[in-house]
Amino acid sequence: MLQYSQAGVYVTTKFAVVGFSEALRAELAPEGIGVSAFCPGGVRTNIRDYEATRPERYAAEAEVPSGPPPGFKFSDEDRARLAALTATPEEAGELVLRGVRDNALYIFTAPEFRAGVEERFDAIRRALGEDPEREQTALDLIPGLVGSPIYKEAP
Question: What is the SS3 assignment for 142?
Fold first, then answer.
């Protein structure tokens, strides 16, 4: 779950889908129904061709960022190296199929996002602070609000 400028709506929808998937998984687990959150990195699709595929009636309303986000400057060689990191649609599909069959909570295509995910997790952890006694009391009283078994059982 990468965040960067010029993509607020895009990033917001990704966060919403992950939260919704986690909630559905917890709600449907008693029925034996699994839910997986697919969190793809780069997949070789036509997503960047949105201007060519956008219906004309919406073109005037669209605010299209000019160029890549700040700090993203790629040479042709860098673009080729980056393209090699992206999954083909078939590879992404295989990962999804395996993840669904394994009832994985999360399905990722891009292990290179690990550092960013860990940085985000560490920032959240620092912001929470620590109060072991309070944490235990909350777990005893409202376990479903402050924790979830979906995180403990996730493959």
Answer: coil
Domain boundaries, the chain: 8-153
Tell me which of 70 and 58 has the higher pLDDT: 58
C-alpha closest to that of 40 among 119, 120, 110: 110
Cα angle 20-24-26, degrees, rounded to a multiple of 5: 120
Share the mean pLDDT of the chain.
85
Could you write out the DSSP letters of every residue in 62-123? -----SSPTT----HHHHHHHHHHSBPHHHHHHHHHHHHHTT-SEEES-GGGHHHHHHHHHH
Task: Select from 35, 39, 25 the least CA-distant residue to 100.
Answer: 35
